[in-house]
């Protein structure tokens, strides 16, 4: 399986087409092998537009939400960055390709050790991993140019705000369940902060002293002791087997963006407009077949005294012909139609002209001279008047038939 090609397709379809434009983020997403950060056996799903379970009730976020958070963090080459919620290590790996130094905190020791091992294998040496309470941050390494939090807190922890450098950016989901909002907090002064709402999201909870606690009725996870550093893979026996077993039991959480970015809204508006234009174009093509002269636009009514070629599909304010064919007769021939028919089609001319015209019981009658020598064809030149479905009664001699027609607006 060509993961490089799949990775490029992910960047094109899931990121750039949805508005991610930061070149450093795009390049990092093209470079970091996401398949190395999922559980064994799940590599083929690594680039799906969805989160994946990584065990311990945690997920690796969908690529788009990761890219969105990094773009909003506005990372620079010389930045020192704190990530709260190492998880699989994928976001830390991406940030390490952009920023100078990454500090990452994870409360689950098994996940922290797995992430550390991945960093060493891939040669990402500018990432430090700690096991601890992420809601308290990493004060020894502060201040940070950016902080990215990959779990939702009930409110922005004050410790994280205090560890921002002046001009620093904090990206964090805030709220519970379906009410979470992705926030960007910028420190503009020693005690001054500006906050932006980036839209609705769904993340796993941030467990910690300044976040959701272990006693909270919604969350029952245990908070580890802060300050413990991930040592090495030797302290994690059978980590691969345990991780795989947990992954099989835990469904992927519906983590990701709920609200849509302005770019997405514009894209979908253009998409809807394109479909409308395509539908109108298709309708125009169909009308070319169904309108005047089209193979399905007319119907021939057979009566004992002849036949009537009648337009059953027309276009509004367009010319139409109705052809009446009389059989040979030594008596004058009579064609009748509802008076209401003239509200739908106005008669512009008759060729050859009628001998006489009369009105009787709400019907209009046209009298044509007898011709015992052979059939006679009469052409009514019509002009459509009213759009919509109409119905008319048409008669030759004493026989009457009902006929429906539809005029497109």
UniProtKB/TrEMBL annotation:
Stretches of the chain forming a coiled coil according to its record: none
EC number: 2.1.1.77
A cellular-component GO term for this protein: cytoplasm
Transmembrane segment boundaries: 273-291
A GO BP annotation: protein repair
Protein localization: Cytoplasm
Catalytic activity: [protein]-L-isoaspartate + S-adenosyl-L-methionine = [protein]-L-isoaspartate alpha-methyl ester + S-adenosyl-L-homocysteine
Enzyme class: transferase
KW rRNA processing (keyword) present: no
Main location: cytoplasm
Classification via InterPro entries: PCMT, SAM-dependent_MTases_sf
Active site residues of this protein: 61
Keywords in alphabetical order: Cytoplasm, Membrane, Methyltransferase, S-adenosyl-L-methionine, Transferase, Transmembrane, Transmembrane helix
Gene Ontology terms for molecular function: protein-L-isoaspartate (D-aspartate) O-methyltransferase activity
UniProt keyword Cell division present: no
Family as reported in the entry's similarity comment: Belongs to the methyltransferase superfamily. L-isoaspartyl/D-aspartyl protein methyltransferase family.
Entry function: Catalyzes the methyl esterification of L-isoaspartyl residues in peptides and proteins that result from spontaneous decomposition of normal L-aspartyl and L-asparaginyl residues. It plays a role in the repair and/or degradation of damaged proteins.
Listed name of the protein: Protein-L-isoaspartate O-methyltransferase
Origin species: Rhizobium hidalgonense
């Amino acid at each position: 399986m060509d993961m490089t090609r799949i990775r490029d397709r992910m960047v094109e379809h899931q990121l750039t087409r949805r508005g991610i434009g930061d070149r450093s983020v795009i390049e990092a997403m093209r470079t970091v092998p996401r398949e190395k950060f999922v559980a064994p056996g799940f590599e083929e799903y690594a680039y799906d537009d969805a989160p994946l379970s990584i065990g311990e009730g945690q997920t690796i976020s969908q690529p788009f939400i990761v890219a969105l958070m990094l773009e909003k963090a506005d990372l620079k080459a010389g930045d020192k960055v704190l990530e709260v919620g190492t998880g699989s290590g994928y976001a830390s790996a991406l940030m390490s390709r952009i920023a100078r130094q990454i500090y990452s905190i994870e409360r689950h020791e098994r996940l922290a050790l797995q992430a550390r091992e991945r960093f060493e294998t891939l040669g990402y040496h500018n990432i430090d991993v700690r096991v601890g309470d992420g809601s308290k941050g990493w004060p020894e390494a502060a201040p940070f140019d950016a902080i990215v939090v990959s779990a939702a807190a009930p409110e922005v922890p004050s410790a994280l705000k205090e560890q921002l450098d002046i001009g620093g950016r904090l990206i964090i989901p805030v709220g519970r369940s379906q009410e979470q909002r992705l926030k960007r907090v910028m420190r503009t002064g020693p005690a001054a902060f500006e906050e932006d709402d980036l839209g609705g999201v769904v993340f796993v909870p941030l467990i910690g002293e300044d976040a959701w606690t272990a006693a909270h009725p919604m969350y029952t996870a245990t908070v580890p002791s802060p300050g413990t550093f991930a040592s090495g893979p030797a302290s994690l026996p059978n980590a691969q087997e345990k991780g795989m077993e947990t992954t099989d039991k835990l469904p992927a959480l519906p983590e990701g963006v709920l609200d849509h970015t302005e770019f997405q809204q514009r894209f979908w508006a253009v998409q809807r407009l394109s479909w409308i234009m395509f539908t109108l174009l298709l309708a125009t093509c169909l009308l070319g077949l169904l309108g005047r002269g089209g193979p399905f636009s007319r119907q021939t009514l057979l009566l004992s005294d002849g036949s009537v070629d009648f337009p059953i599909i027309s276009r509004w304010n367009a010319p139409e012909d109705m052809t009446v064919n009389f059989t040979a007769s030594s008596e004058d021939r009579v064609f009748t139609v509802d008076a209401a028919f003239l509200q739908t089609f106005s008669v512009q001319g008759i060729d050859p002209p009628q001998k006489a015209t009369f009105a009787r019981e709400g019907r209009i009658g046209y009298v044509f001279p007898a011709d015992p020598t052979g059939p006679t064809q009469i052409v009514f030149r019509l002009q459509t008047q009213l759009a919509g479905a109409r119905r008319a009664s048409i008669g030759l001699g004493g026989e009457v038939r009902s006929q429906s027609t539809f005029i497109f607006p």
